[in-house]
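Severity: low
Component: inverse-folding endpoint
Summary: output formatting inconsistent between runs
Steps to reproduce: submit the following structure tokens with default settings.
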């Protein structure tokens, strides 16, 4: 079976410590991704929320933080309604680079999705591009 992995790398004109806060702080997550229900901490469940407060279930995506090594590495499970509860895994790596930070995202686990794997890959690929553009703007 072919592995279905998305890997994206960007450079941000900010320290790894600053970029890290945009990955784990609920209010800062809201500025580029979605509002979090709590800080992302190792061993804890999390949810990223819709802006529509009138919905009974405001969760857009959710998972559990598996690894937190500030400000270098964050790993969590990740799912949402379109994935029908299928868990994928997102890994963030932050490395100092040329006075800023190299940010690498590795999103895995799509190949066992019970549905259109290519559709999930292309939609997440585009989604991460959109989110990365915003992350670069707010964290720099």
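Observed output (run 2 of 3):
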């Amino acid at each position: 079976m072919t592995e279905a992995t998305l890997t994206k790398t960007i450079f941000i004109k900010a320290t790894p410590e600053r970029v890290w806060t945009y990955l784990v702080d609920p209010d800062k997550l809201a500025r580029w991704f979605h509002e979090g229900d709590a800080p992302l901490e190792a061993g804890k469940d999390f949810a990223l929320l819709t802006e529509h407060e009138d919905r009974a279930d405001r969760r857009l995506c959710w998972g559990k933080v598996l690894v937190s090594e500030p400000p270098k590495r964050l790993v969590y499970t990740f799912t949402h309604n379109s994935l029908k509860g299928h868990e994928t895994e997102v890994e963030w790596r932050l490395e100092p680079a040329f006075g800023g930070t190299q940010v690498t995202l590795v999103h895995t686990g799509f190949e066992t999705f019970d549905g259109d794997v290519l559709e999930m890959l292309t939609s997440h690929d585009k989604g991460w591009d959109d989110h990365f553009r915003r992350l670069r703007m707010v964290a720099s």
